[in-house]
Amino acid sequence: MWLGLGFVSFGGPAGQIAIMHREVVERRGWLDERRFTDALNFCMLLLGLSYVYAQFGGFPAVAGVLLGLKAAVIAIAVVAFVGLEFLNVPVPLLVLVAGAMGAASAWHRPRAATSPRAPQASVSSAARVATIGMVLWLVPLAWVVAALGAGSLWTRLCLFFTQAAFVTFGGAYAVLGYVTTHLVHDLGWVTVQQSVAGLALAETTPGPLVIVLQFMGFMAGWNLPAPFGPAGAAVLAAMLASWATFLPSFVFIFLGAPHVERIAREPRMSAALAAITAAVVGVIATLALLLGKVVLWPGGIGGALSWSALAIAAGAWLLLQRTRLGLVWVLAAAALAGLGVQLAAPG
């Protein structure tokens, strides 16, 4: 059954959850509603770990575990490293240009056989979905503007993560590369060390990796809490970041699902998507380089190399490449190694 789900689970986490619910709960009865919901709630564990990191991240034991996890993340990200760091092309422009070039390359290919035009009902259904999505986005945004001001961190955060949802392609690594660049270098809401720690934590918890953006929102609220306390500000920011990130995805799924087959048969669209996928590899490469800089040279490129982090990263890479050990066990070994390094450090 699981192999079959792997072939039909389109639509990202939302689509996969819906398909699993139908098969596991409704058709086969393997889980009841409560247990299925509990499993989904467990997948949201990263929100709790965000608080642990923010509150206790300075403790040696926690810092050691994070060192190992961050070093292991380098090994995972380097697999996708290609080398587009020095082009300095904005991500949205890069995606648009790649898509246009891909479509142009297939300009002379014959079109797929056209299907009958969509009935008026489908047009009205799409309009209804878009309207509902807009309302669901505007309500919390209007509340934040009214309660905290148009220039508040939470208003700007909601708008930023909505923008990120619309202009990023290629999965969690690509999204995180774009978000990190802006939150760290342009806005200064989180530090680069915090962004890398968030990716390490997200790698070790169930659920989609893109939930790391919840951590980024959490840390933005924690770092800039006024007029709230750090915990309250962070939870509000995390909730807004999650809502703004995932709501557009749900709307896109409901809008695009009836047309997936027709789009897949269109050669120009297929070529455009293939080119965008290739361009996203470059975005992932920038994140891999960022991870390497932060973890291997914690004091900056001009500082000393962290040989312990390099050794952990190399060991994790060898385990991933040369053994059949699962990713969870590799991350656990890296975390234990980082903890050992931290405890053995003088002082």
Describe this entry's structure for a reader:
The chain has 2 domains: 7-42, no CATH class; 47-108 and 120-347, no CATH class. Helices cover 74% and strands 0% of the residues. The protein is built from 16 helices and no strands.
Structural features:
347 residues, mainly alpha, 2 domains
| Overall geometry | globular
Write down the Rg: 22 Å
Tally the beta strands: 0
Order of helices and strands: HHHHHHHHHHHHHHHH
Instruction: Bin the strand percentage.
Output: under 5%
Largest sheet properties: none
The portion of residues assigned to helices is over 70%
Mean pLDDT: 74
Into how many domains do the coordinates divide?
Answer: 2
What is the tally of helical segments? 16
Short description:
The chain is an all-alpha fold and about 350 residues long. It has helices at about 1-10, 10-25, 35-40, 45-55, 60-80, 90-105, 120-150, 155-165, 170-185, 190-205, 210-225, 230-255, 260-265, 265-295, 305-320, 325-345.
